[in-house]
Amino acid sequence: MLTDSTRLRDFPSLSGIAYLNTAAESIPPLAVKEALESYWADKARGMRGREGHFAAVEACREISAEMLELTTEEVSFCSCSSEAYNLLASALNLGAGDEVVVSDLDFPAGATPWMRAVNPPTSRLWKAVDGELNTDDLEPLLNEKTKLVQVSLVSFYNGHRIDWKPVHDAVRRLAPNALISVDITQAFGRLVLNCEGADILISSTHKWTLGVHGGCVIGIPKRNAERLTTHAGGWYHLSNAFDADRFERAVTKTGAQSFSVGMPSFAALYALNAALRYVDSVGVAAISAYADPLVREVYDGLVALGYKPMAPLHADRATGIVAFMHERSTEIHAALEKAGVHVMHNAGRIRLAAHGYNTREDVRRALACLEHRSEFRL
Fold first, then answer.
1. CATH of the domain at 291
2. Choosing a second label site near 205 at 20 to 30 A (CA), which of 81, 271, 276, 334?
3. pTM of the full predicted structure?
């Protein structure tokens, strides 16, 4: 996808290393650095720079909407996925008697707001079996009291990608009052999305999208705008923030627009605009077609060396992540780092992730290190 020269031109910090940790932190292209410099130039103009600030927000909204196949009014931004989920909790205003389904492969941001409510709804846990979430195990958790089903399209934990259509159809059939919230953080910018019928999409901006910290994309189709309007205070999401009646009533914009409660994180959105346009110029489908075989090579290579991936790899459900557990994970991580291979290590888990800027040499470098250290094999 990238030639050796364009790879080092656009991602000079990749020189000399095998960076297989995009699921935690991406390496942004130089276009993002240039966008941040543009932010600085506008910020240095003081109040006059706001013209550039707000233009960047709208440009970012435009490319985000295009890539999510939504309209611009269906897309908005906040500071991080944790804020987005807390705002979602505000919009739903669930309480005792309501039920929420979350999975044990979800990131905490999407699973914990419901536990922290003053009158918390009942949380029901959809448990993975052999690293996978099976629809047969979801169905008994669904009923008329279910108000939300929260899933990650791709799990941060082990790379499992849900089988979307059976999940969607089961919720619609068995939980007629439920909304489906999808965390696409580990997919957006890396995989062709297949979340048709989702009620809200949420994504951080510093991973596969190649942006920086301080941003989050929220996508809410118009059909859910009234139901998914936050009850949070603020000003940027109000249509009467500075009107004469502003101390008598707060009129909130609906749907996605209600999630931008305060001044946008302009720097993050300058960066995201440049990052998404870079990704879009290559094409997510092209990125997936290029990087999916690298993930397969990681997976097959680990199996051949005696390691057990935490989730099976399905040919029809691409993912950018392969992970495995090992009792000597700290030593494995140290050996990989010494060999110039960057991966995630946490609580006994090693996670490898391949994006469009990775190469077969990156994968082979990681596998060669593991093969050389035969004492780590199970």
1. 3.90.1150.10
2. 334
3. 0.96
